[in-house]
Design a protein that fits this description.
The protein has 257 residues and is mainly alpha-helical. Helix content is 82%, strand content 0%. The chain has 11 helices and no strands. α3 runs antiparallel to α8, α3 crosses α9 and α6 packs antiparallel against α8. The longest helix is centred in the last third of the chain and has 39 residues. The radius of gyration is 22 Å and the shape is globular. The protein starts with a helix and ends with a helix.
Length: 257
């Protein structure tokens, strides 16, 4: 089944690349706006040979990784505290529902005002966007804890930390991993967006420079790189999720299938 899926995926990708080559060659769109796949591939090769590209890639990955790490740590801690402290969840529910829908891009003026084009501007946007993905999943995960298991733990005299470790955390972990996977994708989107709009160093800023200088094949090549990054991050997050949840029925059932 996996081999068949891989073959179908490769065939779909080959068809997409062939279509990207044929459409501008046939004159359906102007090559100046949509260059053929071969020109984009050539521009990608030139980018890979440019040390500046690797510096920009490192800047993007730095903002993504730091922002994701901060968001995951803060989201897990905040979610556990809000869930286990009596009445705190009810007291914070309206605040969470007010702040969560605010688009992170709406904070771009604030980030520029506070930090300019520094890395901290990128981190502000990335952390804000990714934090809610983790927090909400932690809250849902802890809410899903079996009340019977919770009461049994109390009857056996388990303290607060022991209940979190042996009862709450195993139940919430699948939700946490889902939140981390979602946050990883959102963090990359916001990192590139911040670089593109604010001008912070990274792939987004490099895309903006290519666009303003009319280097269209280079622009598409950099966009392809960001797409590949998103694909690799998603695959990596799913791999970590499977390993962390190897004991869980959802993963064992997936492996069995």
């Amino acid at each position: 089944m996996r081999a068949e899926n891989a073959v179908l995926g490769a065939a779909g990708l080959a068809a997409f690349l062939a279509l990207g080559e044929a459409v501008p060659r046939l004159g359906l769109v102007k090559e100046a706006y949509f260059p053929p796949t071969s020109r984009v591939a050539g521009a990608l090769g030139e980018e890979l040979a440019d040390p500046g590209f690797w510096t920009a890639l490192g800047d993007t990955l730095t903002g993504w990784a730091l922002g994701l790490a901060i968001a995951v740590g803060a989201g897990v801690v905040a979610g556990v505290v809000v869930s286990v402290v009596p009445y705190l969840r009810e007291a914070t529910a309206s605040t969470i529902e007010f702040l969560r829908p605010i688009p992170s891009v709406a904070l771009i003026p604030l980030a520029v005002l506070l930090y300019g084009t520094e890395l901290r501007s990128v981190l502000l946007l990335v952390v804000y966007a990714a934090f809610w993905q983790v927090l909400i999943q932690v809250l849902y995960g802890i809410r899903d804890v079996d009340p019977v298991a919770e009461e049994t733990a109390r009857s056996y005299g388990l303290g607060g930390w022991a209940r979190i470790r042996h009862v709450l955390w195993p139940t919430a972990l699948p939700y946490v991993m889902t939140g981390v996977r979602l946050a990883a994708a959102v963090a990359l989107i916001l990192a590139v967006t911040a670089e593109l709009v604010i001008g912070a160093p990274g792939l987004g800023a490099r895309i903006a420079v290519a666009q303003t200088s009319q280097a269209v094949p280079e622009m598409y090549a950099l966009i392809v790189v960001t797409g590949l990054l998103g694909l690799l991050i998603n695959v990596g997050a799913r791999t970590v999720e499977r390993r962390a949840l190897a004991w869980h029925q959802s993963v064992r059932g997936e492996v069995a299938v």
